[in-house]
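#struct-help
A.M.: can someone run this one for me? Single chain, 183 residues.
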Amino acid sequence: MFLIYYGMPEILKIFNLDVAKWPVLFFVILAYTLNAGAFISENIRAAVNAVDRGQIEAAYSIGMTGYQAFTRIMVPQALAIGIPVFTNHVLGTLKDTSLAYTLGVMDITGKSATLGTATSHFIEVYIDLSLIYLVISMVLEKLFLLLERRLQRFELPVTADKRLRKRSTTYVQLIVARFVKGG
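D.P.: on it. Structure tokens below:
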């Protein structure tokens, strides 16, 4: 963020562009956009590559075009694969927005610092700030969890795995019970 805020005006002076009077918020949004764009594009690439190639071949074998295979087969699976990483990135970016205060942008952290200075109740103000971030993060996490479950509706249920765990737990309990009884 500092590199964009302090470095970009110096680089653009070479082209006779004066951006020094532009609002700080523009540079903050630009910095977060560039950072998020890099991470999200890599997330999308990894999610698309994670979809099994056999899925696309199966779509072609039933007569789908490339566009249909991509939109009906590849995209829903890639979204379901990529949404957990996207969730982590959104929540991390939400918490990182407090760094904008270092450049003078008055966000919720800046308002909290101002309120703490005015009232001399820094601990209470920052506890409230952390609770606000916690509530916002929990709400976003639950919304993304609902979205993830909705996108993963095509997955088969894991009933066989649950049955195996139940059997192995019962088997372990039987062994422990026999050992305790001395038999």
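A.M.: thanks! The helical segments are 2-12, 24-50, 53-61, 66-96, 108-119, 122-151, 159-181.
D.P.: also worth noting: The radius of gyration is 26 Å.
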